[in-house]
């Protein structure tokens, strides 16, 4: 327990994480475009990604300690255990208190339970409910397909932008042009400095 409390205490403060109180995480989910990590604003740097992984790991451990039934869908989960997980996660990681109605904790918990159920179905430890039998084709998808996390794509884009800025060039790689002094002689009352005589 001491290792989990030390990781939770290190996760309680993330200086680069912005404060947000919007409930945007649950409001505009669309298939293939929504990512919890990006909505929580914890993508873009390796420090933020480590903090996100710590949060996800903490929620996973809380779900295991609460002994949630993994073979139930989200609607079948006991509400008393879910609310205990919300409160415990907010106490261990104060960053989660910024999100209204615990939407970030809810999404991470739903994601964990869904992935856990999928592993149980794949191993044969649980049977797929009849209502989801039509999804059996999804198990036959290409294993060599792209598995790059969207958060990693965001981080790589930020790193390339930073590298371009450090190189001193614009987006095309050209150095910025210096301004030329096109002013004439000094005019009394103006803010222009006179040209130096040569």
UniProtKB/TrEMBL annotation:
Region described as Disordered: spans on this chain: 1-31, 146-198
From which domain of life does this come? Eukaryota
List, as start-end ranges, the regions of compositional bias called Low complexity: 1-27
Composition bias type Polar residues, residue spans: 188-198
Protein known as: Uncharacterized protein
Origin species, per record, is Roridomyces roridus
């Amino acid at each position: 327990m001491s290792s989990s409390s030390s990781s939770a205490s290190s996760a309680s403060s993330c200086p680069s994480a912005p404060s947000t109180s919007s409930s945007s995480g649950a409001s505009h989910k669309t298939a293939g475009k929504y990512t919890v990590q990006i909505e929580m604003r914890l993508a873009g740097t390796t420090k933020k990604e480590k903090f996100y992984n710590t949060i996800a790991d903490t929620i996973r451990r809380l779900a295991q300690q609460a002994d949630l039934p993994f073979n139930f869908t989200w609607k079948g989960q006991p509400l008393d255990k879910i609310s205990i997980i919300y409160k415990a996660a907010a106490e261990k990681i104060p960053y989660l208190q910024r999100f209204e109605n615990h939407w970030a904790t809810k999404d991470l918990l739903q994601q964990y339970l869904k992935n856990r159920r999928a592993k149980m179905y794949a191993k044969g430890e649980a049977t797929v409910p009849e209502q989801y039998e039509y999804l059996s084709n999804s198990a036959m998808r290409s294993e060599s397909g792209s598995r790059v996390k969207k958060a990693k794509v965001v981080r790589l884009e930020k790193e390339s932008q930073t590298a371009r800025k450090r190189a001193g060039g614009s987006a095309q790689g050209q150095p910025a042009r210096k301004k030329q002094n096109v002013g004439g002689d000094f005019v009394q009352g103006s803010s222009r400095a006179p040209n130096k005589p040569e």
